[in-house]
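Appendix C reproduces, verbatim, an entry submitted by the partner laboratory led by Prof. M.T., so that reviewers can inspect both the input and the predicted structure.
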Amino acid sequence: MFEPYLARWNLVPDVAPIVTHSSHLLPVSRGEEPAMLKIATEEEERWGGLLMVWWDGDGAARVLAHEGDALLLERATGPSSLVAMARSGSAGDDAASRIIGAAAGKLHATEHRPPPPPLIPLERWFAELEPAAARHGGVLRLAAAAARELLAEPRDVVPLHGDLHHGNVLDGGPRGWLAIDPKRLLGERTFDFANIFCNPDLETATAPGRLARQAAVVAAAAGLERERLLRWVLAYAGLSAAWTLGDGDHPEIALAVAEIAAAALGAGTDQHERH
């Protein structure tokens, strides 16, 4: 599937392809420039590519060419990793969150841009949470209640990345930190920061005091209301858990983060209610 684009865009493969659940990726070079050729295999990825085009490289990897299912992106080759930073201790973890926040600020800016491509409203994105809460109870009920309240009165509605976490913001060297793989959502900007708290792994996300510390760091860095951020964390973690339960798996990280966020808000569940 890569061959037509290799010829059309004068690309040379660098290493073997990478296959994910939603796309096929091939690291390539175009002259002296490293790039990533991405072929979407799901509609969500195709629409995300259009949002990348709209951002025009401001806080996100620059789109060098696109056609149909194919997207040619600048390849971030810097040596630093936000995942490694977050795992290195609280100072690195806080620094990683500030970097994600700065990238989000660029993505959320809409001045001097034409209208974005069609976007998915957050209300639709959260559709699976209410049924999951009714089925499983426990902290998912609290998450669903938080989501209802937040979605009913959104603030600062902007185009959202939808999946901002440590693995989706990469070191672009002189270009700075660059986001990849958006979900093309529309809603309150605070939502985009919630996934930070569920990443990069269970040990980091559930370390004692981590969520409270990160809530203060992210709120200060992004100009957010701390309690409202915690409510979005609860809502998002519940949604993530609902998706994972729907796939037949156990959402250990999402449920743990939801419980911690609920406790921070003074709304923790009893042990017997947890699923």
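The first strand starts at residue 12 and ends at 13. Additional entries are available on request from the coordinating office.
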